[in-house]
Specification:
The protein has about 260 residues and is of the alpha+beta class. The chain is about 25% helix and about 30% strand. It contains six helices and twelve strands. The strands form two sheets. Strands 1-2-3-7-6-5-4 form a seven-stranded mixed β-sheet, with helices on both faces. Helix 3 packs across helix 5. Bound molecules: biotin (BTN). Biotin (BTN) binds next to helix 2, strand 3, strand 6 and strand 7.
Length: about 260
């Protein structure tokens, strides 16, 4: 991984400082530890993770030297109830960045799975540290880049994909990372400058979830309905068969056919 090449092309505060590790447990865990002593926008990048974390307590498959594992430290001036917007923001930024650098038609599955050809190419895990009114947010981004289909472990082989599989050629991870950091800078700046509505409109434009029949598992509840919209705080508005609307902050969503 050529970190100097990335640094040369950074346009704003996000990614100005980069910490690179050949191997670590989880870049998110590391970023949370470093969040008090490091500047906003610092990025932690690893070539490999021993215990990569996914959403909902899952593990994130993190083999060496092929994929992107990156966590960005943010210090948002947002109310804690608006933290879902950080997740929405990062999904919009990553979608733009991957589209620009690969030409692939990435869409977002609520809240922030990066999807192409109905398969998952990447995911984002946002973790917060709230203490004495100070908020630290860590945006952890995992993207499958130069992986062949037969390299995926059995449990995700049917549902996961990579840039290489979809494009048919390898792509430099540095190019995608640079684009992500610059796009996060752009959309995070907009969000902090009262651009919440513009950001939500952009998320709606890039998602493939709205209007679809879906199933959402929230803990031990399973809900079925139509994914109608997202509200001003980034929650999914699910229209149930009863006609009632349910607002969902977090859950495991499956699009039904
Ligand atoms: C998901 O489950 O969809 C989210 C996956 C997030 C994975 C990334 S890889 C970099 C960062 N460090 C982690 O331990 N997880 C995130």
């Amino acid at each position: 991984m050529n970190i100097d090449e990335i640094k040369k092309k950074i346009r704003g505060g996000i990614g100005k400082e980069i910490f690179f590790y050949r191997n670590t447990g989880s870049t998110n865990t590391l970023a949370l530890e470093l969040s008090d002593t490091s500047a906003e926008g610092s990025a932690i990048i690893a070539d490999c993770q021993e215990s990569g974390k996914g959403r909902l307590g899952r593990t994130w498959w993190s083999p060496p030297e092929s994929n992107i594992y990156m966590s960005i430290i943010l210090k948002p001036r947002l109310d804690a109830s608006h933290m879902t917007l950080i997740t929405i923001m990062s999904a919009v930024a990553c979608t733009h960045a991957i589209r620009q650098t690969t030409g692939l038609n990435i869409t977002i599955k609520w809240p922030n799975d990066l999807i192409v050809s109905d398969k998952k190419m990447g995911g984002i895990l946002t973790e917060l540290k709230l203490r004495k009114g100070i908020t630290r947010a860590v945006v952890g981004i995992g993207i499958n880049v130069n992986i062949d289909a037969d390299q995926f472990p059995g449990d995700i082989r049917e549902t996961a994909t990579s840039v290489k599989i979809e494009k048919g050629t390898t792509v430099e991870r540095e190019d995608i990372i640079t684009a992500i950091l610059n796009e996060v800078d752009r959309w995070y700046t907009l969000l902090q400058k009262n651009g919440k509505n513009l950001l939500l409109e952009e998320w709606k434009r890039l998602t493939s979830t709205l209007g679809k029949k879906i199933m959402v598992v929230i803990g031990n509840r399973t809900l079925y309905g139509i994914a109608e919209s997202i509200d001003g705080e980034g929650r999914l508005v699910l229209r149930l068969a009863s006609g009632e609307a349910e607002k969902i902050l977090s859950g495991d969503l499956t699009v039904l056919r």
